Amino acid sequence: HLTPRRLTPPRLTPPHPSAKALEYSASSAHAGRTLVLALDVSSEAVASGALAAACAAAAAALPRAAASGSYARVALLTFDHNVAVWRLRGAAPPLSVVLPVNKLMPTPVAAAANLLNFTQSVAPLAALLARLPEMHAAAADGSGAAAQAAARRGGGGAGAADEEEVEEAASGAALPAAVHTAMALLEGAPGTLVVLSGSGATAGPGKRTREMPLPPASAEEAATHAAALERLTRPEGPLLETLAKQCSDAQLVVELVVAPGVASTFCDVASLSMLPAITGGQLRHVPGIAEDRGGGTGGGGEEGVRATLEAAVTAAVLGPGGGVGGEGGEAQ
Known about the structure:
There is one protein chain. About 45% of the residues lie in helices and about 15% in strands. The chain is built from 13 helices and nine strands. It has helices at about 20-30, 45-50, 50-70, 120-140, 145-155, 160-170, 175-185, 220-230, 240-250, 270, 275-280, 290-295, 300-320; strands spanning about 35-40, 70-80, 85-90, 90-100, 115, 190-195, 250-260, 285, 330. Strands 1, 2, 3, 4, 5, 6, 7, 8 and 9 form a nine-stranded mixed beta sheet that branches. Strand 2 and strand 3 form a beta hairpin. Helix 5 (about 145-155) packs across helix 6 (about 160-170). The chain is globular and about 65 Å long. The N and C termini lie far apart (about 70 Å).
């Protein structure tokens, strides 16, 4: 009678991956994903030049991304107080479907129709990006007049608060709504969302609810002022955190480029930072474009800030396999 012996398999030590294999793994992490561009076309982003710089950088980065096989599909969104989904239609002019943003997040219709083959869309999408700044410049110039006309149409009994509400509705940037729209378009498929923000979240659900405190008028107010400034370094409000967690669950990485277009306006970068932090992306903050646009620095300062902004957008589009790394802006 023979008793079977239990054979112990040999212990194998897995080989260490080579540097080339690691590089391939990093670059292929984006393969098969969808790239969604969401560009702020509010009056602040247009007037500061942030939109023009971002469009130029994105258009130049698209062929590089196509050559590396980084993405399979692409979509384009623009947002001010509403969100617009752009559709390329071959030889026909591009079509934009505007999704109104009120108190609820917008829901795109026929989501799959807005996702385009990346390689085939590089040239027409780059052409559209080249035209976007000029297309929205006229709208930005007329936004103030449109708001005043809307207030007048509201009736002679409208008070200052009503006029302020109408003017706010006719301007601003619904950044959270744009992020939600991108997530809805992908329907759970993995993607990378590159957002250009020229003013933060200033319209729609999740808009900014706090402002920069006024300078203290006395020594007694200094402590209160310092505490208020400290609170601005921490995120506020649950909506952006919830939205970021939903994006993470939906395999959507948010790459956020913030270039405030108005120097005197507070941009709540701390709250916006939750979107890239929770989803695995990066926040690239490019301050100074508003000041340089106004000629305050001189000596070619505007060109320097514009180059920094373009590098930030390029890095966000190409990702870790694009050979750009985290350059451009203050990555956080």
